[in-house]
Amino acid sequence: MQIYKVGGAVRDRLLGRAVSDIDWLVVGATVEEMQAKGFRPVGADFPVFLHPQTGEEYALARTERKSGRGYGGFTFHASPEVTLEEDLIRRDLTINAMAEDDQGNVLDPYHGQEDLEHRLLRHVSPAFAEDPLRVLRVARFAARYAPLGFQVADDTLELMRQIAASGELQALTAERSWKEIERALMEEQPQVFIQVLNDCSALQELMPELHCDADSLAALVQAAKHRQPLHVRWACLLDRVQPAAIKALNQRFKAPRECQELAVLTGEFSGRADAGMALEPSGLLEMLQKFDVYRRPQRFEDFIVTCEMRALGRGEQTYPQAEYLRGAAATARAVNVKPLVDAGLAGQALGEALKNERLKAIEAYQRR
Ligand code: ATP
Ligand code: MG
Questions:
Q1: Which of 7, 35, 127, 273 supports an S-S bond with 307, CB 3.0-4.6 Å?
Q2: Residue to mutate, 20, 23, 25, ligand 1, most ligand atoms under 8 Å from C-beta
Q3: What's the rounded Cα separation, in Å, for the pair 322 and 319?
C-alpha cells in the first residue's frame, strides 16, 4: 500500500501557510489490512480510519458517483484497485487535488500547482456539479485566499451558476451549509464569500434576504478587520435585514443560539443604541431589561460591539455610544435590591420598585 498526504495539507504547505490538520490517502489497501494494522474505522459505510497513535484521518482511495438528490445520494466505491488519479479527480478544486508521497514529491495530475501560481480556484472535472456544497466551498476558499489574490476561474463560476440555476442548492442540509458559512465568516475577508455566491446567483437561492452591495457588507468587513467572534460577524452580516428575514435566515441554517439571539436583538435595538445620549431613560432601561444585562452582561457587550462595527462600516470614526451604553448597563446593575427587600417589598411590588430605582439611577446617569 502507498500512503499520501492529500488535500489542504499539500495546498497550504505549497502556499507557505500553516497546516492545521493532515488528511491521508491510502492506495492499494483493503479494509481488513487497515484493521490488521490497528487503524480504527470511523464510520460503518465510509472507508475512513483513524491512525492508532496520531488519531489523524486515513481514507482509502475511492471513486464516487452521484445516485440521487442531496448528500445521501452518493455511492462510494473503495477498493485496492482505485488509483491515486481516480481518487483525486473526484475532489472539488485542482489546488485541493494534489498528493504528496513520503519523499515529499508532489503528485499533481490535475495541475493544481499551476493554478496555485495563477491564483485560480478551478474545478477538477465536470463531476464538480454533483455536490452542490462545492458552490459554498469555493466561495469559502475565495474568501480565505482573497488576500493572496485568488479568484474563481471563469469556467468554474459558470458551473457554479448552473448548479445554482438547477435548484440543487435547496437540497443541502442546514448543517452542511452552516458549517461552510461559519468557516467562511471567520476568514479574513468574509465579504468575498457573499460576493462570490452573488456572482454565481447562489446568494438568491441560499440567502435571498441579503444584499451584496458595499454598504450592506460594510459592518461585516469591520467585524473581520477587528477579529470579532462568529456571533458578532453573523449579526453584522444581517445588519440591514428586516426582523422577519433575520428569523428566517437563523432558522434556515439552524444557526447556533448565540448567533441567533445577537442577530435578532441587534435588528430590534440597534436604532436605540445609535440614538445614545438622545434616548429617553425609559427606552434605555427597557432595552437593558430586554437584554437582561443583570444576568447576561456579555450579551449586551457583544451587542455594543456589533453596533460599533456597524457604525465603523457607515464611515463613522468613533462610536461614543459604546461607552455611554456600558455606563448605563453598569448603573442599572449597581442598583441594590436589598433596601427594597428590607422595606418589606416582595413579588410584583418588588419588581416594580426595583425597576423604578433603576430608572431613577439611569436618569441621574444621563444628567451627570
Ligand atoms: P481546510 O483547510 O478548510 O480544512 P481542506 O482542503 O483540508 O481545507 P477539507 O474539508 O478538510 O478541506 O477536505 C479535505 C479534502 O477533501 C479537500 O482538500 C478536498 O480535496 C476534498 N473534499 C472535501 N470536501 C469535498 C467536497 N464536498 N467535494 C469534493 N472534494 C471535497
Ligand atoms: Mg482539512
A1: 273
A2: 23
A3: 6
Instruction: Report the sign of the C-alpha dihedral through residues 302, 304, 308, 314, in that order.
Output: positive
Burial label for 7, CB within 10 Å (0-12, 13-18, 19+), is buried
Q: How far apart are CA 183 and CA 200, in angstroms?
A: 20
For ligand 1, atom 6, the nearest C-alpha belongs to 8
Q: Is 8 annotated as a binding residue?
A: yes
- Could you tell me the end-to-end alpha-carbon distance of the chain, in angstroms, rounded to an integer? 77
Distance 15 CA to ligand 1 centre (A): 16
Give the integer Cα–Cα distance in Å for 93 and 341.
66
Can you spell out the DSSP letters for 89-126? Answer: HTSSBGGGS-EE-TT-PEE-TT-HHHHHHTTEE-BSSG
Instruction: State yes or no: 23 annotated in a binding site.
Output: yes
Q: What is the grid cell recorded at 138?
A: 469555493
Contact partners, residue 69, CB within 8 Å, separation at least 6: 168, 171
Gap from CA of 59 to ligand 2 centroid (Å): 13
327: annotated binding-site residue? no
Which residues in the chain show pLDDT less than 50?
none
* 92 in contact with ligand 1, CB cutoff 6 A: yes
Distance from the alpha carbon of residue 97 to the mean position of ligand 1, in angstroms: 9
**What pLDDT score does 72 carry?**
63
- Which ligand is located closest to the Cα atom of residue 93? 1
d(CA 244, CA 30): 52
> Closest Cα partner for 273 from 294, 293, 252?
293
For residue 41, the number of C-alpha atoms closer than 13 Å in the C-beta half-sphere is 12
Nearest to 264 by CA among 286, 282, 241: 241
- Measured CA to CA, the distance from residue 97 to residue 197 in angstroms comes to 22
For residue 97, count CB atoms less than 10 angstroms from its CB and return exposed for 0-12, middle for 13-18, buried for 19 or more.
buried
**281-337: pLDDT as tens digits:** 999 999 999 999 999 999 999 999 999 999 999 999 999 999 999 999 999 999 999
Calculate how far, in angstroms, residue 7's C-alpha sits from the geometric centre of ligand 2.
Answer: 7
Q: What pLDDT does 368 receive?
A: 86
pTM over the 0.85 mark = yes
